[in-house]
Each structure stands twice: as C-alpha cells, then as structure tokens.
C-alpha cells in the first residue's frame, strides 16, 4: 500500500510525463496507481485526461463513468467538459451538448462558491 507521500511523488511524476507529452506513460502510471488505490478520483480524472489526449474517447468515457455522472461542485465542473469531448469524439453530439449544458449549469455555482 502506498502512503500519501509516495502517492504524491508518483502523481508528480505523472505531471512531469504530461508536460513532456508522454501520455502513454501517464496512462500506465495512473492505471497502476488505480490498481493500488481504486477510489482515487484525481487519478481517474488524470487517466481520463491522458486518454482524451490520445483520442481514445471510449476509454476516457469509461474512466469518467467510474467517477459518476454528478461531479461534486468543488471545482469539478470541468469533468462535464471532459465528458463532452469524449462523447463528441465518439460521434454522440447530442449527449456531448447535454454534457456542455451540465457544465454551464454548474459553472456559476462553482464560481460563486470560490468567492
């Protein structure tokens, strides 16, 4: 089991891989982290983001689905935009539009909560 410092170190490595454009490495790293900590929402989001960068829309949508369809309002409205990108990439334009609408409905609440 990873302690919090080890988890933070590995996530930092993932961010470095991200900055270098090694999205396949990012994906492998966060899949490994999720094998150890399957409930880590941040790792799921980063895995989905890496999959989106590789135009692997079905995989990204599956990763996002593990987070659930109701992202918490604490800055996670962006998950709806990630869902929209995945759905659009799969040719599911109506669902992508609905995901953008969800984002727009959440965005004012997120902004108001941050002030």
Contiguous helical run count: 6
Strand content: under 5%
Which sequence of SSEs, written as H and E, runs from N to C?
HHHHHH
What is the CA-based Rg, rounded? Answer: 15 Å
Q: Helix proportion of residues, in percent?
A: over 70%
Mean pLDDT over the full residue set: 87
Instruction: Specify the structural class.
Output: mainly alpha
Calculate the terminal CA-CA distance, rounded to whole Å: 37 Å
Poorly predicted tracts of residues? none
Q: What's the story with the biggest beta sheet?
A: none
Count of DSSP strands: 0
Features:
115 residues, mainly alpha, 6 helices, 76% helix
Report on this model:
The radius of gyration is 15 Å and the shape is globular. It has helices spanning 4-20, 23-36, 41-53, 57-65, 78-89, 93-114. Helix content is 76%, strand content 0%. It contains six helices and no strands. The relative contact order is 0.10. The chain has 115 residues and is an all-alpha fold.
Question: What order do the helices and strands come in, and which of them pair?
Answer:
Blueprint: H1 4-20, H2 23-36, H3 41-53, H4 57-65, H5 78-89, H6 93-114
């Amino acid at each position: 089991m990873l302690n919090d410092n080890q988890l933070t170190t590995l996530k930092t490595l993932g961010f470095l891989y991200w900055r270098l454009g090694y999205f396949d490495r990012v994906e492998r790293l966060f899949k490994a982290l999720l094998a150890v900590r399957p409930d880590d929402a941040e790792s799921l989001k980063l895995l989905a983001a890496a999959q989106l960068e590789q135009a692997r829309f079905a995989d990204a949508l599956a990763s996002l689905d593990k987070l659930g369809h109701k992202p918490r309002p604490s800055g996670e409205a962006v998950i709806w935009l990630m869902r929209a990108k995945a759905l659009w990439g799969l040719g599911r334009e109506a669902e992508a539009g609905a995901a953008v609408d969800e984002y727009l409905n959440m965005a004012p609440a997120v902004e108001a909560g941050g002030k």
